[in-house]
Amino acid sequence: MRRSRNRKSGVAVAFLYRVDRAKPVRRMTSRKWGALALAMLARRTCPACGLDAGYVIPPSLGMCIPCAYPDDQQRAA
Ligand SMILES: [Zn+2]
Description:
mainly alpha, 70% helix
């Protein structure tokens, strides 16, 4: 810190400000990604069987394909 003040105080200060600005941004993005992952997981989880369908549950059906069309699953099996 002492040496940096004597030689490159401006650069050191600017770098510290950049780090301070970068940290909250990274936290916000990580939180957004976490919220997105939870939202995607909630959308992918079927409310009928409670299993992760592996895809977003269609809003028109409100449940996963096997739950919405049990007849097709029985025919396929
Ligand atoms: Zn289901």
